[in-house]
Amino acid sequence: MNTSPTSARPPHRWAIWLRRGLAALGVLLVLAIVAACLFLDPWLRRTLEKQVAEKTHGQYQLGIGSLRTELWARALHLRRVALRPTARPLADTLPRATLYLGRLDVHGVGILALLRGRTVPVDSLTLDSLRLDVAALARRPAPHPTPPLYEQQPLRLGYLALRHISGSFGHTSKPTGQLADGLVSAHDILFTSAGAADTQRLAFAASWQAQLRQPLGRVGGHTVTAGLASFSSARQQLGVDSLRIVPPAPGRGTPGAVRVFFTMPRVRVAGLRAATWQHQHRLRADSARLSEPRLTFRPPAQAPPPLWKLLQPLFRRADVQQLTVENGYLAMAGVGEAPAVRHVFSTARRLRIDSLSEQPTSRRVLYALGWTGHTGRLTGTFLAPLYPASIEHAFLDTDAQTLRFTTLAVRPTIRPAQLNLRKGYQTTQLTIRMDEVRAQGFDFKQLSANSYLRVARVIIENPYLLARSDGRGPLNRSPSYLTPDAVLRLRAHIDVRQLDLRNGTIMARSRSERTPLVGSFSINRLNASLYNVTNDPSRMSLAQPLTGSATGYLQNTCRAEVHLTTSLLDPRGRQHLRGSFGPAPFSILNPVMTPTRLIHFKSGQAQRVDFDEYIDRQHISGTVRAHYTGLKLNFLGYKEGEMTKTFFGRIKSGLVNVVVRDQNPRPGGRFVVGEIDTPRELEFSTFTAWRQGLLAGFVHSMGVPKKMASGYSQASAGTALPAPTDAPSRRVGTPPTAPAAPAPQARSKVGRWLHGTARRVKRLAKRLKNKAPGQR
């Protein structure tokens, strides 16, 4: 029987064993996968919990609700993760915190890199419903410092998401920091040493984005809250909505510390280089826009450090190309002046905040190269609560060196008699109004750097000054501040090249101690210019004095012209005042002389009065050349609320008209020049000194002896204060002042002589009246 050559050969032995080995390996692999599915997740869960306890030295315990791995997808899923501090920790080298995480999902884990100890790539990491409450920070350092986590396990994470995050810091009842809800995401996180050193990355990531709702923090006793804070490093934007800072309750907080109340609906920062802030400790931004900020603060008991030092914990230097404030409000509380400014619109150009920007060489104004802006109403109170003041609008441009105010007003709150009672002596009450004040050539950089006020020109439009006084009360014997040499007491330097007053009005209303009637006098259509108004020793001297000239109309009728020369730094206080006024009838003085001194100019015409005064701190001298005719005076009496002619007033008028010459030049053609020779009373202002010298010289030219004229021009010794019934609006809690006995009225030598003569005539008339007709 034949055998076929194509019959199959039996397989080799090695092939049989290969097939058996592969089958066994497959079985082992299936068993390993089954074992991994059954035992890997519990083992990994126990391992994580055990490592947390070991790594924290028993200070924390980790609890995981569920753990599921997907080896084929290289994914890990955790649910209901809780990290809690132990009841009695063995050490206190970690913060006391509690963490709860609803879910954690990791995708795309590089398992081989993890097994080899290399940088582990991870596609994404998502944490949802994370809450972290930190009760306290670590009290002691770790006994064996470990390297940073990014060196222990380097990672490269493609995407990180933190959703619905919340937490707090501090005690549960009153946390120092708190977050209601937040969403944070990051891309391309290089969690390695190279990532930490990369200056283009922010916190290891190429970009971050965050939205935090209702964050809260407490700093310096103040509570800081916001409705929403958003940030994007890729778009370089930061925004905060409904920002609010509330000070501690009254009686709480550090005594004498600053107290701030601040609200701002919206702030936007664009062009923010957050990575530069992290790596260089330098804040850089293209623009910052503050919408409707409202700041009310109580200043601290001690002057605070400069702004750059206060912000040093946040950054070493800040550079903002443009800062814009829209409709802001600023007020100072806790001081009597209570200054406030409303509707602030301003823009700062190239703002820089650091120690060098405060140096005079920086040529900056409040840390910026330039400011422009305007405001609404500004309010405050001088000598609170006596003089509320306001400015309707302010306009500022530091580049153009201009500053403008509109409608300035200072209005008193009490009457002159009440002011005398409050001060304890006679004082003048002022009402001031100016339609506009313009400053040109204003060196804001000198003012910011050295507190040096340097202005090329100041123009005041339509100024109005009302000075009211009450003659009842003692005189204030303290030196007056309204003198040119008072600038010696100023700490700041002032340098105004030219000061112009246009179309001004000065009103004076006074009540004498003799009658309740009020006299008035005015200077209208006043135009004045002052040059070299400075206390800078390099600009002010006897060779370079202050000079000025003014023209106006007395009682809106008589034209007057004045020229002034003085050195503001002269220790002797020397001044030279010359001028002239006229023509005018003497009756223009009746509105002030008749109510206050019961003197009435019956007739008289001044053609021209020229005066030349020299004033220093001891003496007033000079001459008065008065051309006048037909001067006649009447002395009146006051009874039952009316001014009347009395019998003794007629006698006194006749005697005075005999003494006083009714014309100059005299009938024979002789012209009498009035001499000014009177002491300077430093308790009165320089304006009073001018008037005192002019009055002494004019009375002397009328025929009154020089010594009597000097005494007549000087102030009286004062009287008792008015009764409190004249001042019903005294402060609450102040006991009423008992009415003082009326002091005898002080008179000049002329007045005493006339008064004595009138009394003698009165006695003579009384004797004649009592005698029989045949005995007269």
From TrEMBL:
Region feature Disordered, mapped onto this chain? 716-755
Any transmembrane segments, and where? 21-44
Keywords on this record?
Answer: Membrane, Transmembrane, Transmembrane helix
Tell me the protein's name.
AsmA-like C-terminal domain-containing protein
Natural source organism: Hymenobacter bucti
